[in-house]
């Protein structure tokens, strides 16, 4: 799967008929290789390598890195795209993304940095007039090219991917013929400590989850830096820890990474490390899926660090960007030369007051909540939160009425269930809603049997599941018997796992189980008045505002809460409310759920009334 955005940007540059013909030639070569039995991954690599080799040959340059798997195929190919690449070398990244398969790039965690992002990060780092610069995950070399264009210094790049390194080497050769960069094919995280003599380290580390790389790396890095790390740590935090040892005292470091460490458990160790070892200039946060990384489902942050102790009173700037400004203007905001900038929200926090245990989204912009936060409590004080039931194969374990009748199943071994978030689109879910779901033919019954051996009326269906391989899937294979389900009580309150425009908390009036489409909230006080009072607050505009800095942010405006995130959400302590306030909030929640069913235009007005009453309670 190619990057459509990369191809679109490339086509804007390739405008004349000759260039279009050359680009079509490259695409046709890919098709020929696919037809010849090569995979999409191999085809893209072969074609790009052929282009690079042809350009290098014209320039009298030999590519420094060999890829033995495709050398033979490259030698047998002839491609005319070299002219296109020579004329448009600054769009090399877009061509890389357009030709090299997404599968290959995902394997190496590659999300290439756009020029405007590189321009800002490098401009900040070059303020220190570095004599040597390191990019420990150099990729196609956008950072180093920007460095060489900005100043006169020695550059070093490290990467594990020969194809990306050759792209980088050729890019630097074409842009700066007299420069001899130091490029190395190796794994930076396995590199032995070099002398800490780099003045500036700039990096877009690979994005790989903890299960996609050697877990032994975490232990190795732990021993080197003296910080205990979570086994769930993703790979990009390890680059911070490792790069620290390569940076001289007083040196600068600029990284662009996911902003996950602001709110995840493993992020606490990274935040502690940054606070302990650096003076932090700024965090620049934005949804880069809109501006930069169209295939990255995450919000990104640029972290700007100085390897010096933070002065007492040193302030860290948290800058939230919705429209990318010029590098000059954004640098002025980071330096404190200006306090406002269109498309940016900025707040400053003393570094010695930053708490690694706190979700740092709270510092993004002016939340306008003043002293209210101090009068709220974590949800864990009034309730517990768990995920819904994970079956491991919803298409087998969750059934429609038609499925039940087809297989002749006994309802004694089934439980009514909310299988999908779309089945509960309002603020409450009633028995009438469940009946409508049944009539619509949706999956709404959960196989709920723990007998071993199973009852005879289930034998045929379970044999069908075994034929489908359900018993061998991860979750079923770890249950005994495999067809049993997680035991769970229906939760009075259901919370959406993913949301975009608004988070919704649902009153489970039908008292049904739910699959993982919803999280389950179990208030300690289970009387209906208390439950509805809590629901009124959870669905209020005030709570929505607080969620902005406590939820997990993903690309494209997607938001997520894990159960532990929910338990940390700041809420009213409904267990201590006066009876009058509890009854008033419960009544307002009933008004809200009726409005959602009968006249959604009234919802905002009801939420304003809820906010007003909540604010009167907290003063």
Briefly characterize the structure.
This protein has 619 residues and is α/β, with parallel strands linked by helices.
User: Which consecutive residue ranges, at least 5 long each, have pLDDT under 50?
Assistant: 75-82
Main β-sheet, spatial strand arrangement: 3-2-1-4-5-7-6-8-9
Strand content: 15-25%
Number of strands: 22
CATH class of the largest domain: Alpha Beta
* Helix-strand makeup class: alpha/beta
Helix percentage range: 40-55%
- Straight-line distance between termini: 55 Å
- Largest sheet geometry: 9 strands, mixed
Can you tell me the CATH architecture of the largest domain? 3-Layer(aba) Sandwich
Overall body shape: globular
The DSSP helix count reads: 25
Mean pLDDT reading:
84
Throw out a few tags for this protein.
globular; alpha/beta; 4 domains; 40% helix; 25 helices; four-stranded antiparallel β-sheet; 619 residues
Structural notes for this entry:
- With 619 residues, the chain is an alpha/beta fold.
- The chain folds into four domains: 4-106; 108-366, Rossmann fold (3-Layer(aba) Sandwich), CATH 3.40.50.12420; 372-388 and 488-619, Adenine-n6-DNA-methyltransferase TaqI, Chain A, domain 2 (Alpha-Beta Complex); 391-485, no CATH class.
- The chain is built from 25 helices and 22 strands.
- The strands form five sheets. The chain has a nine-stranded mixed beta sheet with strand order 3-2-1-4-5-7-6-8-9, with helices on both faces. A four-stranded antiparallel beta sheet has the order 11-19-15-17. It has a four-stranded mixed beta sheet with strand order 12-14-13-18.
- α21 packs across α24 (579-598) and α24 (579-598) packs antiparallel against α25.
- The chain is globular.
């Amino acid at each position: 799967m190619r990057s459509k955005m990369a191809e679109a940007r490339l086509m804007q540059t390739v405008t004349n008929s000759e260039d279009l013909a050359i680009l079509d030639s490259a695409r046709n070569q890919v098709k020929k290789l696919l037809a010849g039995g090569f995979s999409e991954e191999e085809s893209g690599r072969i074609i790009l390598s052929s282009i690079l080799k042809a350009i290098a040959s014209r320039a009298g340059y030999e590519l420094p890195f060999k890829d033995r798997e495709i050398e033979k195929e490259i030698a047998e190919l002839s491609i005319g795209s070299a002219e296109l690449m020579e004329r448009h070398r600054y769009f090399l990244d877009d061509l890389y993304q357009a030709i090299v398969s997404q599968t290959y790039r995902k394997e190496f965690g590659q999300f290439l940095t756009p020029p405007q992002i590189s321009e800002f990060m490098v401009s900040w780092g070059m303020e220190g007039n570095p004599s040597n610069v390191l990019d420990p995950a150099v990729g196609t070399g956008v950072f180093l090219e920007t460095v060489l264009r900005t100043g006169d210094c020695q550059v070093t790049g490290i990467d594990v991917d020969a194809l990306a390194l050759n792209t980088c080497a050729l890019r630097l050769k074409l842009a700066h013929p007299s420069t001899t960069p130091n490029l190395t094919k190796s794994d930076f995280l396995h590199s032995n400590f070099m002398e800490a003599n780099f003045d500036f380290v700039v990096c877009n580390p690979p994005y790989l989850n903890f299960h996609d790389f050697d877990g032994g790396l975490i232990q190795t890095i732990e021993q080197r830096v003296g910080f205990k790390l979570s086994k769930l740590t993703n790979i990009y935090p390890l680059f911070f820890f490792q790069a620290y040892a390569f940076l001289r005292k007083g040196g600068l470091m600029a990284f662009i990474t996911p902003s996950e460490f602001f709110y995840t458990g493993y992020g606490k160790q990274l935040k502690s490390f940054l606070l302990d070892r650096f003076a932090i200039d700024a965090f620049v946060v934005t949804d880069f899926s809109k501006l930069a990384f169209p295939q990255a489902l995450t919000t990104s942050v640029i972290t700007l660090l100085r390897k010096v102790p933070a002065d007492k009173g040193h302030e860290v700037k948290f800058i939230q960007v919705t429209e990318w400004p010029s590098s000059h203007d954004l640098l002025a905001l980071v330096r404190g030369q200006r306090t406002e900038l269109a498309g940016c929200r900025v707040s400053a926090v003393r570094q010695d007051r930053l708490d690694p245990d706190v979700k740092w989204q709270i510092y993004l912009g002016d939340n306008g909540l003043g002293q209210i936060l101090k009068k709220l409590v974590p949800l864990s004080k009034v309730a517990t939160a768990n995920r819904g039931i994970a079956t491991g194969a919803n298409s087998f374990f969750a059934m429609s009425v038609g499925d039940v009748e087809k297989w002749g199943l006994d309802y004694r071994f089934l439980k009514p269930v909310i299988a999908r978030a779309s089945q509960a689109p309002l603020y409450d879910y009633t028995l009438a809603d469940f009946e409508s779901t049944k009539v619509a033919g949706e999956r709404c019954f959960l196989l709920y049997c723990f007998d071993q051996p199973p009852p005879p009326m289930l034998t045929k269906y379970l044999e069908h599941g075994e034929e489908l391989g359900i018993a061998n899937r991860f979750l079923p294979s770890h249950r005994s018997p495999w067809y049993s389900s997680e035991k769970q009580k229906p939760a009075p309150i259901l919370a959406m796992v993913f949301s975009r425009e608004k988070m919704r908390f649902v009153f489970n009036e039908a008292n049904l189980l739910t699959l993982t489409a919803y999280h389950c909230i179990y208030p300690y006080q289970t009387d209906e008045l208390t439950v509805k009072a809590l629901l009124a607050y959870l669905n209020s505009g005030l709570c929505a505002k607080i969620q902005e800095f406590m939820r997990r942010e993903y690309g494209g405006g997607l938001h997520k809460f894990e159960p532990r995130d929910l338990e940390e959400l700041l809420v009213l302590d409904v267990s201590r409310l006066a009876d009058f306030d509890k009854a008033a909030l419960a009544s307002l929640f009933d008004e809200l759920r009726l409005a959602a069913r009968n006249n959604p235009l009234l919802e905002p007005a009801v939420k304003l009334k809820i906010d007003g009453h909540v604010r009167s309670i907290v003063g």
